[in-house]
């Protein structure tokens, strides 16, 4: 089965379903020929993930225990890593490339607060043209590298009216809008070497880590900027309409973004412990108005992330220190 970008990446002419590598597949849905769907899970078979993981563990000489995914503008989380071994995505076999501003496109392996970690300085989004299984494939690579804890971070719009720009929302649950639409990174045949066919997702977000993070926030004096809430991932790249934001709020969503959920599903499927937070980079208007500054934009997202990177870095590094000390 092909996992090249011809099938499943931006610019891939066959993206998703008409790979010439597949036996019997015929290209050209526009000509009325049969489309053969590529089940998402087949894009990256176990052996391919294993090869990528070997490339990283052998290349770095490390088996990291904690994996970090840096959200938009939060690449500085990876800059904290000491004695870093850096892998540009384009040099990692079978790896996608980052196409979004604020996502540098490299994997950084090293130590942080005594723990061995690997960080994705740049994640993959559905709206870049990647199928969900491809977006979250690096989580499986992390697993086979030895990672037990996933730290996923993102930039998100705050729907909860109590949230202010610059606040941090610790995720305790999610609403998977892409899942509502029938899309999952686990779609297709299940490989039990990763996890079960039907993974449960209640308690996906590790409560001990959330509680520890709250304690750390208190110690940092940023308690009033910390919330615990529900994140929802939409497909993007457009930001939401007022009607969508109203609907999400009615569903109990506190913050909205375009990532993380499929990574968390993939991590829970292979039994990783998950800690995730959203940096609230903009307030989402849930009432109609003519004011231009009510509109979300990526420059604002990046600017807020830059302003708040210090607090985010401190929260992450202190939590990693606690995990490391507890396991030492
Ligand atoms: O990678 P994350 O989820 O942090 O990035 C968010 C969602 C979009 O990629 C971008 C929109 O401004 O920020
Ligand atoms: N979907 C979505 N993603 C974001 N990322 C940062 N802000 C937003 C937002 O308002 N909506």
UniProtKB/TrEMBL annotation:
InterPro entries found in the cross-reference section: Nucleoside_phosphorylase_d, Nucleoside_phosphorylase_sf, Pur_Nuc_Pase_Ino/Guo-sp, Purine_phosphorylase
Record-annotated residues binding a purine D-ribonucleoside? 240, 282
Q: Which residue range or ranges hold the Nucleoside phosphorylase domain?
A: 65-321
Span list, region Disordered: 1-23
Q: Which UniProt keywords apply?
A: Glycosyltransferase, Transferase
EC number per UniProt: 2.4.2.1
Annotated signal peptide: none
Q: How would you classify this enzyme at the top EC level? A: transferase
Please name the SUPFAM superfamilies in this protein's record.
Answer: Purine and uridine phosphorylases
Claim: Glycosyltransferase is one of the keywords in the record: yes
Q: In which pathway does it act?
A: Purine metabolism; purine nucleoside salvage
Which molecular-function annotations from GO does this UniProt entry contain?
purine-nucleoside phosphorylase activity
Binding-site residues, phosphate: 72, 103, 123-125, 155, 259
Its GO biological process terms?
Answer: nucleoside metabolic process
Q: Which reaction does it catalyse?
A: inosine + phosphate = alpha-D-ribose 1-phosphate + hypoxanthine; 2'-deoxyguanosine + phosphate = 2-deoxy-alpha-D-ribose 1-phosphate + guanine; guanosine + phosphate = alpha-D-ribose 1-phosphate + guanine; 2'-deoxyinosine + phosphate = 2-deoxy-alpha-D-ribose 1-phosphate + hypoxanthine
Reported function: The purine nucleoside phosphorylases catalyze the phosphorolytic breakdown of the N-glycosidic bond in the beta-(deoxy)ribonucleoside molecules, with the formation of the corresponding free purine bases and pentose-1-phosphate.
Q: Which family does it belong to?
A: Belongs to the PNP/MTAP phosphorylase family.
The molecule here is called: Purine nucleoside phosphorylase
């Amino acid at each position: 089965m092909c996992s090249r970008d011809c099938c499943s990446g931006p610019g891939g002419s066959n993206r998703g379903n008409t790979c010439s590598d597949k036996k019997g597949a015929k290209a050209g849905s526009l000509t009325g020929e049969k489309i053969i769907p590529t089940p998402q899970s087949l894009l990256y078979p176990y052996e391919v993930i294993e090869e990528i993981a070997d490339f990283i563990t052998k290349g770095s000489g490390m088996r990291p225990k904690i994996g970090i995914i840096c959200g938009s503008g939060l690449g500085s989380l990876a800059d904290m890593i000491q004695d870093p071994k850096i892998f540009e995505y384009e040099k990692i076999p079978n790896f996608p490339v980052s196409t979004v501003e604020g996502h540098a496109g490299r994997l950084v392996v090293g130590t942080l607060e005594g723990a061995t970690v690997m960080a994705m300085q740049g994640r993959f989004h559905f709206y870049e043209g990647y199928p969900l299984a491809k977006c979250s494939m690096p989580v499986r690579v992390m697993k086979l590298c030895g990672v037990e804890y996933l730290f996923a971070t993102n930039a998100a719009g705050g729907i909860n009216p109590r949230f202010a720009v610059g606040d941090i929302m610790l995720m305790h649950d999610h609403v998977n809008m892409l899942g509502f639409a029938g899309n999952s990174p686990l779609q297709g045949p299940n490989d039990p070497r990763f996890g079960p066919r039907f993974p449960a997702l209640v308690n996906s977000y590790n409560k001990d880590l959330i509680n520890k993070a709250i304690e750390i926030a208190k110690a940092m004096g940023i308690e009033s900027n910390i919330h615990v809430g529900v994140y929802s991932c939409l497909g993007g790249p457009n930001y939401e309409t007022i009607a969508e934001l109203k609907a999400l709020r009615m569903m109990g969503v506190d913050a909205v973004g375009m990532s993380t959920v499929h990574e968390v599903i993939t991590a829970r499927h292979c039994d990783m412990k998950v800690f995730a937070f959203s940096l609230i980079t903009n307030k989402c208007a849930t009432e109609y108005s003519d004011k231009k500054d009510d509109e979300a934009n990526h420059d604002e997202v990046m600017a807020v992330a830059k302003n708040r990177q210090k607090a985010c870095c401190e929260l992450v590094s202190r939590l990693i220190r606690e995990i490391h000390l507890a396991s030492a």
